[in-house]
Amino acid sequence: MPFKAQIYRVLxxxxxxxxxxxxxxxxxxxxxxxxxxxxxxxxxxxxxxxTHARPQxxxxxQEAINRQLVRTCDVLVGMFWxxxxxxxGVAESGTVEEINKFVAAGKPALLYFSNRxxxxxxxxxxxxxxLRKFKEATYKRALxxxxxxxxxLRQAVLKDLSNEVSDLKARSQKSGSEKLEEARKLTNLIxxxxxxxxxxxxxxxxxxxxxxxxxxxxxxxxxxxxxxxxFFDYGAVVVATFNKDxxxxxxxxxxxFAGDNYETKKFEVVGVVASLGFRSAKAAIQHGKxxxxxxxxxxxxxxxxxx
Length: 307
Hints:
CATH class of the largest domain: Alpha Beta
């Protein structure tokens, strides 16, 4: 039977000497889904560069992986055994760069070090020394896990994912409440500007009185309307929604404004319900696009949803 679920992407990160372990971590994610997806209304998607990254030219290879995978993933499972990996020009290895990106973004990174025995003839002493230094530095600022065989890793990842999902869902609920409050503020702001016929130029004039601050290097032309001036500067997505449980309401138009919040300095998306009662999805989208244009924000995409 179908069920609604929250989806989190789990990035499997490691140097090239852990092929079996990468599969074991993937198996752990899939096993978690089999055991908990329905009851938790949550699905975990294992993500690996060898299965999810696509060719891209004109960019540093690791940067391509960062853009395509790292930025969109929610949890990282990192593993090391006998080597650290190849330097990327930014970090000591691709795996280390991915971990650094997660830590900088405040996203969870689960790190495991292997104690499996290895044939001495296959050891790269330079790589082993790099890994030793990385482990020493990591032990000082993170709590890590260890494993002595592939199945031990699978069990450890499976257990730790359960705890991590609980934390992710708790943070998501808190974030959702905060975004609803931001949506309420932004909706009220838009209504106030329309009701009192406040122009972008007038809004710019009392920016300081409202406590709004510009980031360094920004010009007035970039932030002279109430949407981008207060919260966002990336663009918007117009969504036409029809609720089958409330057919009398007709189609609703929602605008998702997205960009960097001036206060938190973080990327955010705030959805504003523009209006209800449209006879068709096309009419709802046209209304939303007019609203977006009116505030000088670029319409990045449109879509239709039936709930």
